Amino acid sequence: MSPLNSQSVGGMTVTFHYPAASDQPLALVVFLKGLNVAPSHYSYYAQRLAQYGFVVALPDPETRLPRREELFATTGLLADLQATLRRETENPQSPLFERVNPEKVALLGHSQGGIVGLDAIVNASAVSFASGDYSLPPQLKAAAFYGSLLEVELDLESDGDRPLNSQGLPLALMAGSRDSLMPAAEVRATYTGLATPPKLYLELEGANHYGITNVNNPPQAPLDPRLPDLPQEIALDTLARWSGVFLRAWVLSDAIARDYLGQMLGTIDPVVSLEGEF
Questions:
Q1: Do 115 and 147 meet the contact criterion of CB atoms below 8 Å apart?
Q2: Strands (DSSP E) along 134-195, which ranges?
Q3: How is 226-261 classified by DSSP, letter by letter?
Q4: Terminal alpha carbon distance of the chain
Q5: How far apart are CA 165 and CA 157, in angstroms?
Q6: H or E segment and range at residue 274
Q7: What secondary structure, in 3-state letters, does 72-123 show?
Q8: Rounded to 10 degrees, what is the CA torsion of 107, 211, 13, 20?
Q9: Which is it for strands 12-17 and 7-9: parallel, antiparallel or unpaired?
Q10: Measured between alpha carbons, how far is residue 28 from residues 103, 223, 261 in Å?
Q11: CB under 8 Å to 104, separation ≥6 — which residues?
Q12: Strands 272-277, 199-204: pairing kind
């Protein structure tokens, strides 16, 4: 595994992880970090995920994560990262020369980063600009978030919950059973509130809010007082495996991965439980 030297993209430092070799063009995965978590704490997960056929970009915003209108805008983060990888795949001196398809993109995130991503997807149709409606870029093929949730709004007209409109984008929500910052029950409620498939809910038994980071409770990050029962390496490998399979199914149009997900729904596993609609 060889990360590219960190580059400045759209005014922020970005580190890229990618497999040393690949038999097909790599798709772009953009990972939005959690509050006060250094991107380096996601390196293990990013390296494992990249092996499934992706270039994983870890932006490091100096002050704040992008707002919804900054994420998908034509001058936003995804567009800037796509432009960077187009240059890399066209540069004979780059280790990514002729290895990347930047027109296939996935959005991932943890905690606050996942909330930003979820909000941008669900509320894309609610944002407009003078230049026209704000919408999901057609290159965005799927999204997956760990330890992230949205409140399901009350629909006053029907006296029930208003479904979350995911714009038809395949979405995976992942949670740790011991997460006290973004409880699994609330993440699952967000999953249930998603109006349309494809959608996947994964619960990792024994993991807390930081099952996706290199170490539990990274320095300066909000403290999760519930310690994990699951070893960190097992949590990381499990999350990388299932998010990798999900992204292969929907970003790389891998029929084998999609069939595998369908076969594994509802199976008994001591570490992970899956439910979904495809």
A1: no
A2: 140-146, 154-155, 160-161, 171-176
A3: S--SS-HHHHHHHHHHHHHHHHHHHTS--HHHHHHH
A4: 32
A5: 17
A6: strand 272-277
A7: CCCCCHHHHHHHHHHHHHHCCCCCCCCCEEEEEEEEEEECHHHHHHHHHHHC
A8: -80
A9: antiparallel
A10: 8, 31, 21
A11: 27, 28, 139, 141, 251, 252
A12: antiparallel
Sheet with 12-17, side-by-side order of all strands: 7-9, 12-17, 54-60, 26-32, 100-110, 140-146, 171-176, 199-204, 272-277
pLDDT band at 122 (very low <50, low <70, confident <90, very high): confident
Q: How far is CA 46 from CA 21, 108, 157, in A?
A: 16, 11, 44
Q: What's this model's pTM, rounded to 2 decimal places?
A: 0.90
Give tens-digit pLDDT for 184-224. 999 999 999 998 999 999 999 999 999 999 999 999 999 99
CA atoms of 84 and 223, how far apart (whole Å): 35
Question: CB neighbours of 134 closer than 8 A, spacing ≥ 6?
Answer: 68, 69, 72, 73, 124, 125, 127, 128
Separation of alpha carbons 116 and 65, rounded Å: 8
Q: 47: which residues sit within 8 A by CB, 6+ positions away?
A: 1, 3, 17, 56
Alpha helices for 123-254 (secondary structure H): 184-193, 232-250
CA 208 to CA 9: how far, in whole Å?
A: 32
